[in-house]
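Reader question, answered in our methods column.
A reader sent in the components of a multi-part assembly and asked whether the whole thing could be modeled at once rather than chain by chain. We filled in our standard form and ran it. Here is what they sent:
COMPLEX SIZE: two components
ENTRIES:
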Amino acid sequence: DTGVSQDPRHKITKRGQNVTFRCDPISEHNRLYWYRQTLGQGPEFLTYFQNEAQLEKSRLLSDRFSAERPKGSFSTLEIQRTEQGDSAMYLCASSLSSGGRNEQFFGPGTRLTVL
Amino acid sequence: GENVEQHPSTLSVQEGDSAVIKCTYSDSASNYFPWYKQELGKRPQLIIDIRSNVGEKKDQRIAVTLNKTAKHFSLHITETQPEDSAVYFCAASIGNSGYSTLTFGKGTMLLVSP
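And here is the structure of the entire assembly that came back:
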């Protein structure tokens, strides 16, 4: 499968624990995005990387959230001291910057449940 | 920032009917408008997109129209089939040489009854 992959697919944790998610984009894509999706809502932008540089972070991304893309390939999203309100589907997407188009391909997501 | 409103939130049609989903956006600088289809428990998948230099785009049974003046765009599905049942999201972004994040609507659940 050459699409965007995410790991794990499901994560159940207790409030206060730290969790880390991984995203592997489509290999030639230089842009990588993290979104959060709650039930009945569209994906909400969290942060964006072009190669290894994190270029934008949403107001939604509190200081408990951190994301990295150390070699411009895979990315990790860490949530520290999880809260019940962090329960959501975390989606990763990637795209190739070309001609101004922004066709983003999504991964299957990591569903986080904070108990 | 950009704000995207999507209507209706649910839409039920009979197989073979047409379905129309409408979105409005707030930032006149937005110039790229994709539509995603998300089946239950699956990832969003791009079904069609349009750039602001085009007023309409069609791909088989799916078409998208854009009115830049009114800042709204619509998805049209003709000859609907049960497999079209899913949640559809519109989005808008400012695509330029820098970056372009997507702002999504809240989605429309389309149910096509046989």
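What stands out: The interface with chain A takes residues 4, 6, 32, 34, 36, 42-46, 49, 51, 89, 91, 93, 95-107 of chain B (CB under 8 Å). The first strand of chain B starts at residue 4 and ends at 7.
Send us your own complexes using the same form.
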